[in-house]
Amino acid sequence: MCLLLGASGVGKTLLVKRLLKLSSGDGKGDLGDPPPTRPTVGRPSPAGLAEAGTFYGLQSALGCFKWKLECGGSVCECNPREVGTDLTDIVVPRKITIRELGGCMGPIWPSYYGNCRSLLFMMDAANPTQLSASCVQLLGLLSAEGLAEASVLILFNKIDMPCYMTVEEMKSLIRLPDIIACAKQSISTVAVSAHKGTGLAEVLHWLQDTQGTDS
């Protein structure tokens, strides 16, 4: 199992759709126009809520309430065991299951660390104001006991968009070299554009190298 995590709006859902097309062979050459996406939001599964505990459950509920207000108060009629998490199988050439968790589900991410062999953590390279929050999330993930043996790939997405800071400046600002040196995990980084497809082949190669038979 590979977890795909990151703050809301960093481009996780588009990344998965692009990787799926690229791995299927349909994406050879031009990937075409980006497919439509929707935020991965909502409630945790009942099992995940029980594992996360009452406090995390309350935080998640507050996040869902905020989402309902933003959506005009409408309630999404979905399977409660699937809301807030999407599963996608890609073949590179082994089958790898990528579990994407919505950014608003951050408080209950730990309930999904079991059987995680690799971690994709996405940051928004076009939004430096979100950098500090993403860094805090990253440090929390790297210090989690359940992810101590997971391989980690940090993706700086949206490099196709204009920004007043370069990716290298962002890495320096959050002292990423020091974080990598002190972490227990094997950590790699890659700059990508899920919109244009830049760097996605590197992500597939990393998944192939780090993920064994799917579990």
UniProtKB/TrEMBL annotation:
Tell me the residue numbers annotated for binding GTP: 103, 157-160
Under Gene Ontology molecular function, one entry of this record is:
GTP binding
Keyword GTP-binding on entry: yes
**Transferase: is it a keyword of this entry?**
no
Please name the InterPro entries in this protein's record: P-loop_NTPase, Small_GTPase_ARF/SAR
Pfam families, sorted: Arf
Q: Which domain of life is it from?
A: Eukaryota
Give the UniProt keywords, A-Z: GTP-binding, Nucleotide-binding
Q: Which PROSITE patterns match?
A: ARF
| PANTHER family associated with the record | ADP-RIBOSYLATION FACTOR-LIKE PROTEIN 16
Name of the protein this chain belongs to: ADP-ribosylation factor-like protein 16 isoform X1
The species this protein belongs to is Callorhinus ursinus (Northern fur seal)
